[in-house]
């Protein structure tokens, strides 16, 4: 939908406005599944803006509704979002519990998008804890699933995660290779995270390569 598109492009103000209007309409009609999904998006926006406490409130409220109505897909997404923001807030034990539960839920219902998304969040969480091997394992599984399913955005996210892990291991060539794959995909999609990946590459000494023209995703080797 348009709100999701604006969110991915980094236009948070417009995305938030669209979601809030949709939330009001859904609440008036009592559409619980839609309400919980919108709260998940609002939580993500608040998180991306650094408003962690507000993000937690959105995630918790959405999770309560989703659990009451047993909306399994949304439960896994909300658990993942909540786990991520808890990790960013330094609440590692609760973050581990939420991310683990969200991943288990996604695996049970075989939702590959959610599995990849949560694996990427889990990998980033482990990177922040300096658990490089655990992070690498999560990103690698996510990449394998995403490539097979053709989820280009998730391929890009997993590739960036692997780039960070490789850099921490001292494997600079592999770090650049994965980072540039991620940058090329995100740039082609007009994704907000392309700037973050480009900055990461530049600050780690890859600024000359970053200026190269993006290569086409179809020609990439994601192995």
Q: What would you say this structure looks like, in words?
A:
It is a single chain. With 223 residues, the protein is mostly helical. The chain contains eleven helices and no strands.
How would you summarize what this structure contains?
The protein is mainly alpha-helical. It is built from eleven helices and no strands.
Report the span from N to C terminus: 32 Å
β-strand percent reads: under 5%
Task: Describe the largest sheet.
Answer: none
Order of helices and strands: HHHHHHHHHHH
Helix content: over 70%
Give the CA-based shape: globular
Provide the residue-averaged pLDDT: 90
Low-confidence stretches: 210-223
Q: Radius of gyration in whole Å, from Cα?
A: 17 Å
- What is the count of β-strands? 0
Which terms summarize this structure?
223 residues, mainly alpha
Which helices and strands, and how do they pair?
Elements: H1 2-8, H2 12-29, H3 32-48, H4 52-68, H5 72-88, H6 92-109, H7 112-128, H8 132-149, H9 152-169, H10 172-189, H11 193-210
